[in-house]
């Protein structure tokens, strides 16, 4: 049907004359005439994702068939999930990816973990690195494009608490002051920033060349909440300077980050400028999409409905296209809706206080899809 | 000008396909360009200044979570009070109060009660004048006691809205509704036999001439909803509100703001009309209510004889250009998601029918994203 329409449009220059002669023409804001519109119109409906667009995705894991159907109903074709224990084996990865494929979903990103010795610079880190290298090779063979990872000494999740939002929905709020002096875990101790930098440098210089060889890219998630000090240790991935420094450790698209506009705004940064910086270097290998209201950068903020946050979500979405970003966009950190209590068992991933649930996820996905189709239409 | 339009419409079934294919717009006078440049600098208003609404009763599931979604407006019929006529003030007061208790503003009556506008009026039967008189009273009391100034009505006597399959498996096995005229054609005539277009026009014009002057006096806006489905005849009963040309004819019977149109995107698109174009053509003095949904024709002809409803983000209508058109004409009235697929948990719980909660929430998320993208275009983060 689409092909017929396009052929017809190409042939019908005379129609342009007919349309403008009668009362059925209309005015577009851009003032283009009919003939120009035909060539310049970028999209026909329905607007879909493609090889050269970003892809909406969502987190899954241990979900049954009906939950996976729900993902498809929302119009999502790509998923991210936790990887198996390291070392990843090719047959295990394929089995996971095939399971989702059977429900029409493509795995776009798996998270890797079990490398505390790397993070803390302890004995045993070389063994971990060997397992991770093996995992990367398996990922490459399986066709998994992105491996996501974290680098926390000890994440400050104690700072999160629930607040009530509009109509009894949930807001995820964060306040540094009650948790800023939490002591270090005795099993972990404290580290200086340079120690953490040394450890991550050692790690990346070992694994990134293997990733490049295997055709796999790494995505490091920023420290969130972006507290300067957490449990007595500084967080190197809680500053823009830290992010830039990380990307320069190995100047390669395989050494990338997860871009998160929410974290940017939590830190008082301009989310569009950060996206431009990282995206123009082709070092964004995964992305989140959410909105916040920040009272004190780094120290006090609320994760809110996308439509009332401070970020201009459309400018962010357009910038994804401007920098040619083609990987996943995850509209995460959904608000809790009271409706989820009536339909339990449909949880859309881990929830933070004031968040979680399939209802909020559906809202986020629909909003993100509209933003994407709008960006594709302008 | 009018004659050109009618001829153009008759000749151009194929052009309609062109128009519907890509949201094609045409050239612009400089006057309009200036107006629209001014509009581009409008201050941002949430939801592009449009009043997102749900069709819901005050006790429905949707009413409970509408405020979580920042949906503040309700579209509904009147709720009946025992021993009180549907057009009497008590009915309006009770309905309005019930919504207020839930923090909602009642904004449209969609579906006036059958004893105020029913078969007698639409088919011109005995008792018609009394029914019309009830309708006029209904309008007055609705405005005065209900504080509602839009009534969405239709001209589909006996057989109203209809589908041949209400549980088709759509995307991800969500339940959607579709219509196939080949199946519908097999249904028998009703007790009213064959009813001609002429009959329906005669009765519609009679109704319009009787009620519009009264509506105009009190500031009530009537809103004609297109026939759904937009076929020519169904079980012997002809349909007339199924083309732009016919709507133009209705508007010409009483050209005034009180004589308006419900822009039901699904139906108009299936007639072969380009939604953004017709929205801009009629403007906000004609369009007083919007059903914002998407559809996909499956028949390959216009008007469509076989179609399916879809999620808002899939389907043949250019939803971005449509929302932009409403924004550009300054539409600030009520807009509701209309039919939505039944999703996930609700399908498993045995629900269906196009009005379930999760699908409505998905639709609002989508509409909000589009409206915000359009209204914030060019402003900084």
Structure, briefly:
The complex is a heterodimer of chains A (about 375) and B (about 375). Chain A has helices at about 1-10, 15-20, 35-40, 65-75, 90-100, 115-120, 125-140, 195-215, 240-250, 260-265, 270-280, 315-320, 360-375, and strands at about 55-60, 80, 105-110, 145-150, 160-165, 170-175, 215-220, 230, 235, 255-260, 285-290, 290-295, 300-305, 330.
Summarize this structure as a short list of keywords or feature phrases.
A: 378 residues; alpha/beta; four-stranded antiparallel β-sheet; 14 strands; B: 381 residues; eight-stranded parallel beta barrel; 41% helix; 16% strand
Describe the structure.
The complex is a heterodimer of chains A (378) and B (381). With 378 residues, chain A is α/β, with parallel strands linked by helices. Chain A is built from 13 helices and 14 strands. In chain A, strands 1-2-3-4-7-10-11-14 form an eight-stranded parallel barrel, surrounded by five helices. A four-stranded antiparallel β-sheet of chain A has the order 5-6-13-12. Chain A has a two-stranded antiparallel sheet with strand order 8-9. In chain A, α4 (65-73) links the parallel β1 (55-59) and β2. Residues 1-40 of chain A have low confidence and may be disordered. Chain B is an alpha/beta fold. Chain B has helices at 2-11, 13-22, 30-40, 61-66, 89-101, 119-123, 128-146, 181-184, 197-218, 244-253, 265-270, 275-282, 319-328, 344-348, 357-375, and strands spanning 51-55, 73-76, 105-110, 150-154, 165-169, 175-180, 221-225, 233-234, 237-238, 259-264, 287-291, 295-297, 306-309, 334-336. In chain B, α7 packs parallel to α9 (197-218). Chain B is globular and about 50 Å long. Residues 1-39 of chain B have low confidence and may be disordered. At the A-B interface, α1, α2, α3, α4 and α12 of A face α1, α2, α3, α4 and α12 of B.
């Amino acid at each position: 049907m689409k092909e017929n329409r396009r052929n017809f449009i190409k042939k019908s220059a005379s129609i342009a004359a007919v349309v403008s002669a009668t009362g059925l023409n209309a005015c577009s804001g851009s003032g283009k005439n009919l003939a120009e519109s035909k060539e310049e119109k970028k999209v026909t409906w329905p607007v879909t994702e493609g090889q050269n667009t970003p892809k909406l995705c969502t987190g899954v894991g241990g979900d049954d068939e009906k939950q996976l159907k729900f993902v498809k109903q929302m119009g999502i074709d790509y998923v991210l999930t936790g990887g198996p224990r390291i070392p990843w084996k090719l047959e295990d990865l394929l089995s996971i990816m095939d399971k989702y494929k059977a429900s029409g979903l493509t795995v776009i990103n798996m998270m890797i973990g079990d490398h505390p010795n790397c993070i803390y610079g302890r004995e045993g880190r070389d063994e971990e690195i060997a397992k991770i290298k093996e995992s990367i090779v398996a990922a490459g063979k399986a066709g998994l494009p992105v491996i996501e990872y974290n680098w926390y000494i000890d994440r400050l999740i104690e700072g999160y608490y629930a607040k009530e939002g509009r109509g009894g929905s949930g807001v995820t709020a964060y306040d540094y002051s009650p948790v800023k002096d939490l002591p270090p875990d005795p099993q972990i101790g404290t580290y200086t920033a340079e120690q953490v930098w040394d450890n991550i440098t050692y790690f990346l210089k070992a694994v990134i060349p293997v990733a490049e060889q295997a055709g796999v890219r790494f995505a490091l998630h920023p420290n969130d909440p972006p507290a300067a000090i957490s449990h007595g240790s500084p967080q190197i991935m809680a500053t823009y300077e830290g992010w830039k420094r990380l990307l320069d450790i190995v100047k390669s698209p395989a050494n990338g980050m997860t871009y998160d506009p929410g974290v940017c705004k939590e830190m008082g940064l301009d989310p569009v400028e950060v996206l431009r910086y990282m995206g123009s270097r082709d070092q964004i290998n995964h992305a989140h999409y959410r909105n916040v209201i920040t009272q004190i950068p780094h120290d006090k903020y609320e994760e809110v409905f996308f439509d009332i946050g401070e970020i201009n979500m459309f400018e962010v979405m357009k910038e994804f296209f401007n920098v040619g970003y083609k990987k996943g966009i995850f509209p995460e950190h959904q608000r809790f809706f009271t409706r989820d209590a009536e339909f339990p068992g449909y949880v859309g991933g881990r929830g933070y206080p004031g968040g979680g649930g399939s209802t909020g996820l559906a809202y986020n996905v629909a909003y993100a899809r509209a933003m994407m189709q709008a960006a594709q239409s302008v | 000008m009018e004659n050109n339009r009618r001829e153009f419409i008759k000749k151009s079934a194929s052009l309609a396909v062109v128009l519907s294919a890509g949201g094609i717009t045409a050239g612009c006078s400089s006057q309009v360009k200036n107006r629209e440049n001014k509009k581009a600098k409008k201050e941002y208003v949430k939801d592009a200044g449009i009043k997102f609404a749900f069709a819901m009763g005050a006790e429905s599931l949707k009413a409970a979570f509408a405020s979580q979604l920042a949906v503040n407006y309700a579209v509904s019929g009147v709720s009946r009070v025992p021993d009180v006529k549907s057009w009497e003030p008590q009915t309006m007061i009770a309905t309005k109060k019930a919504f207020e208790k839930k923090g909602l503003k009642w904004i449209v009556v969609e579906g006036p009660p059958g004893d105020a506008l029913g078969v007698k009026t639409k088919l011109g039967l005995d008792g018609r004048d009394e029914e019309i008189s009830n309708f006029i009273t209904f309008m007055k009391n609705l405005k005065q006691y209900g504080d509602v100034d839009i009534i969405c009505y239709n001209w589909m006597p006996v057989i109203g809205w209809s589908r041949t399959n209400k549980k088709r498996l759509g995307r991800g096995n969500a339940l959607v509704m579709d219509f196939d005229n080949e199946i519908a054609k097999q249904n028998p005539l009703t007790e009213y036999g064959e009813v001609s277009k002429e009959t329906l026009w005669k009765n519609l014009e009679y109704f319009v001439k009787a009620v519009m002057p009264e509506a105009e006096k009190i500031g009530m806006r009537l809103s004609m909803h297109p026939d759904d489905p937009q076929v020519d005849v169904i079980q012997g009963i002809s349909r007339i509100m199924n083309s732009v040309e016919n709507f133009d004819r209705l508007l010409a019977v009483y050209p005034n703001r009180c004589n308006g149109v419900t822009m039901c995107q699904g139906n108009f698109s299936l007639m072969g009309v380009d939604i953004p174009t017709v929205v801009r053509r009629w403007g906000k003095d004609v369009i007083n209510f919007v059903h914002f949904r998407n559809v996909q024709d499956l028949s390959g002809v216009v008007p469509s004889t076989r179609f399916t409803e879809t999620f808002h983000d899939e389907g043949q209508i250019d939803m971005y250009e449509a929302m932009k058109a409403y924004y550009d004409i300054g539409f600030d009235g009520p807009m509701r998601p209309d039919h939505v697929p039944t999703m996930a948990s609700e399908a498993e719980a045995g629900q269906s029918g196009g009005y379930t909660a999760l699908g409505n929430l998905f639709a609002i998320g989508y509409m909000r994203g589009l409206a915000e993208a359009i209204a914030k275009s060019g402003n900084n983060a």
